[in-house]
Specification:
Blueprint lengths: L1 E6 L10 H10 L2 E6 L11 H9 L7 E6 L11 H11 L4 E10 L7 H18 L3 E6 L6 H13 L7 E3 L6 H9 L2 E5 L9 H9 L5 E3 L21 H11 L4 H15 L10
Parallel strand pairs: 1-2, 2-3, 3-4, 4-5, 5-6, 6-7, 7-8
């Protein structure tokens, strides 16, 4: 079985066929999906948990878990009420992670000071609730300012927790990958790993230890090469896994088993997710 470690199941793009989409994932061999709870802002970050509760236990479905967090662009809305809501959500057993949170200097949807404050506030809550974090980090082209700032914050406010997390949809270089693993993070690759121009990213993935890897879709975005341009869905995480298996000179099933073990090690509340 395989785990999709990052999918936005609450996207409106699934409104008309969410159940059928999840069944396709299970048919493709996806045993579990981590549903990302950021919505369009804090007012919607509970939606991933609601989807988990709606579909868990239904036949022919993958097991669903949720996260909750305030995305970098919406950190201006990270007021006391939003942070209290995040704390409540992270207390729920199905909510196994805080995220996706981090820095985005590519779009600059919020100023950098606000992003930093929002990230640190969420790290404090996640540490109290003992939840690993899911990091979004996107820089401007050709610079590493967001990554440098991220590692600075994690070094000061997260390393000592020992909780680690996931570098979601990794797209940086070998040095950023090395620092991520050194901090106790797993490195997760999405459909862009399969794109023809992504050879530098494939070179990074090939060099990482097997016990540091995850795969994801980031659905509904970043559909892998065979379906590029279409609405992505968890069933297609298999394409990324096949690409990653080839880079590691492994069989598909061996790669699937390894990434499942990695996921379960990082998220102990999700033990057994990929074996149903």
């Amino acid at each position: 079985m395989l785990i999709d470690s990052h999918a936005h199941l609450d996207s409106p793009r699934y409104t008309d066929d969410r159940a059928e989409m999840l069944k396709r994932a299970r048919q493709a061999g996806v045993g579990a999906v981590l549903a990302i709870g950021i919505g369009e802002g804090p007012a919607e970050m509970h939606q991933a948990l609601e989807i988990c509760r709606e579909f868990n236990g239904q036949p022919e479905m993958p097991r669903l878990f949720a996260s909750a967090g305030i995305y970098p662009h919406t950190t201006p809305d990270a007021d006391a009420a939003a942070l209290e809501k995040l704390d409540r959500l992270l207390s729920e057993p199905e909510v196994v992670a805080c995220g996706e949170i981090g820095f985005d200097y590519y779009h600059e949807g919020a100023d950098r000071i606000t992003q930093r404050r929002g990230l640190i506030a969420q790290l404090e809550i996640a540490a109290t609730r003992k939840r690993p974090i899911l990091i979004h980090c996107r820089d401007r082209e050709g610079v590493n300012e967001a990554w440098d700032d991220l590692f600075d914050v994690l070094g000061q406010h997260w390393r000592a927790t020992g909780l680690g997390g996931v570098m979601h949809c990794f797209g940086a270089g070998r040095e950023q990958a090395r620092q991520s693993v050194e901090l106790g993070f797993l490195v997760s690759f999405a459909g862009n790993l399969t794109y023809p121009k992504a050879q530098p990213l494939r070179d990074v993935a090939a060099k990482l230890p097997l016990d540091s890897l995850l795969v994801e879709t980031d659905a509904p975005w970043l559909a892998p090469a065979p379906n590029r341009g279409k609405r992505n869905e968890p069933a297609w995480v298999t394409e990324t896994a096949r690409t990653l298996a080839g880079l590691k000179n492994l069989g598909y099933e061996e790669l699937a088993a390894a990434t499942t073990r990695n996921f379960e090690r990082m998220f102990p509340n999700a033990i057994g997710t990929g074996r149903a």
